[in-house]
Amino acid sequence: LPPRGWGDFGLQLLIWFGFGLAYQLARGFADRGPLEAFENGRAVIGAERALHALVELDVQRVILESGGAVLVAVNWTYWFAQFPVIGLALLWIYFCRNDAFTRVRNWVLATNTLALVGYVFMPTAPPRLFPEEGFVDTLAVSAALNHGSGLVELASNPFAAMPSVHAADALIIGFAMAMLVRSRWARVLWTLWPSWVWFSVMATGNHFWLDIAAGVGLVVVAGTWLAWMESRREGEVEPVWNDKRW
């Protein structure tokens, strides 16, 4: 039986799927300015070039030359890193570590809400939409599922690169699971999970590293804000990731 009964379990499913639907629809509606999105994308490229750190091209070159299983792995990581992995991780936390569930759920929801604000005010085209710069959409050239596939095209916003929610959510889930699982190997794997996702979203041409950095920044902001909200009752501000109740 669910630790808090079927009623609470149903409520959590409603919150999760309701937010997921609202988020995807709102993200699609945020697709308002292609011209602005491409200008912002070029600005990101320009900033990384100025820093001599346009590393995404090198990452893609290595992956495309390797091909085979590595290319398949990064393509499917891009798709599974969002709702499937997050959903299964939250489900496990709910049933097996219920005391931590509300904190992790709220951290994910708060971070994604902040990201949606970023999409509205700063639409940004991802690397894959700049083939003239040498970027390749690996999903389009080597995967059966891509951004032009059915419901994916309907619900997604092609100009939602900045900030990267893939990067943000992977960090939250990786951190939470590493803190909550008991197996040493599981802890190692969950600790490495964010880095693998960050690598994959760059390798597939879906995010710049600056998008990833912005996503990580959102995690910190959202976690600090949630900790402050909790501290209003406890009288002490302590970041979510440093909470001794983990």
Provide a descriptive summary of the structure in words.
The chain has 246 residues and is an all-alpha fold. The protein has helices at residues 5-29, 34-50, 56-66, 68-80, 83-96, 98-121, 138-142, 150-155, 165-180, 184-203, 209-234. It is globular and about 55 Å long. The chain starts with a helix and ends in a 12-residue tail after the last helix.
* Number of helices, where a helix is a run of at least 4 consecutive DSSP H or I residues: 11
Structural class: mainly alpha
Approximate strand percentage: under 5%
Give the termini separation: 23 Å
Query: Which residues form runs of ≥5 with pLDDT under 50?
Result: none
Quick one: how many beta strands? Answer: 0
How do the SSEs run, as a string of H and E? HHHHHHHHHHH
Mean pLDDT over the full residue set: 88
Shape: globular
User: What's the alpha carbon Rg, rounded to whole Å?
Assistant: 18 Å
Could you estimate the helical fraction of the residues in percent? over 70%
Largest sheet: none
Provide a concise account of the structure shown.
The chain is 72% helix and 0% strand. The chain is mostly helical and 246 residues long.
Mind sketching the topology for me?
Layout: H1 5-29, H2 34-50, H3 56-66, H4 68-80, H5 83-96, H6 98-121, H7 138-142, H8 150-155, H9 165-180, H10 184-203, H11 209-234
Summary keywords:
globular, mainly alpha, 11 helices, 246 residues
